[in-house]
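Quick one: structure tokens for this chain, please?
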Amino acid sequence: MRAALLACLVLAACERTSPSAPSDPSPLRLTAAISQSELRPGDTATLTFRLENTGPDAVKVQFPSACQIMPFIAQPSGTVVYPGGGRWACAQVLTAISLAPGGVKIEELRIQGGLSERSSVYGLPAGDYVSYARIDGSYVLQSAPVAFRVGNSSTTVAIDSLLSCDPE
């Protein structure tokens, strides 16, 4: 009896403290996509994060910093590998994005399987990853994650050699 009462109190407390859904749904949609979900060492792909105004009116999103659309890459364990340290360091200056009805703001991130020598491309070691974006301003949104994999060259070579074997 006590356990049931305690469970009810905990659930009631959680309901009071969890954020409630806004009465008007957000006119903004934040999505993530990747150009190639399987990468081998040296392959590059583009992660595209798209903030779109799906409403009938113009929308102005205000931000407390220079960070607007913030992309993240994480391992399945939840460990964020991009940005380094797991958090964005943003200049503390007010910024804004204005989107007309149907307007779009796009942020792209280029990734590469393995180490990258180019500063404009983020290199990732072999493994499974998810990527998503967030905005933390007058609207707070997070995109659904997109999954991708960076393969290991030795695994790829082993599979390719098995597929090309002569059955004799």
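Residues 25-147 form a domain with the Immunoglobulin-like fold (CATH 2.60.40.2360).
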